[in-house]
From TrEMBL:
Transmembrane segments: none
Alphabetized InterPro entries for the sequence: Homeodomain-like_sf, Transposase_8
UniProt-recorded name of the protein: Transposase
One record GO biological process: DNA transposition
Organism: Siccirubricoccus deserti
Molecular function in Gene Ontology: DNA binding; transposase activity
Amino acid sequence: MARKHHKPEEIVAKLRQVEVLLAQGKSAAEAVRTIGVTEQTYYRWRSEYGGLKLDQVKWLKQLEQGNGRLRKAVADLTLEKLVLKEAASGNW
């Protein structure tokens, strides 16, 4: 079965839907089945996105993307530095 990648906005909406269903007295298993994900996925989403508002989720994802770009830049610069250091020492 193919995996579906949910957008952060969809995740927040589904978490709110589960909260409503739980408040209506449904069990966690029934509520999670209603939104179409496994319990494990629900609890993972809840730990990551629980209590966040939509604008906060968008901001978090932007930060994660920026952080990834910065990590790649640092890795590239570190590799360049090591190559230059080795070339300067004459061990090649």
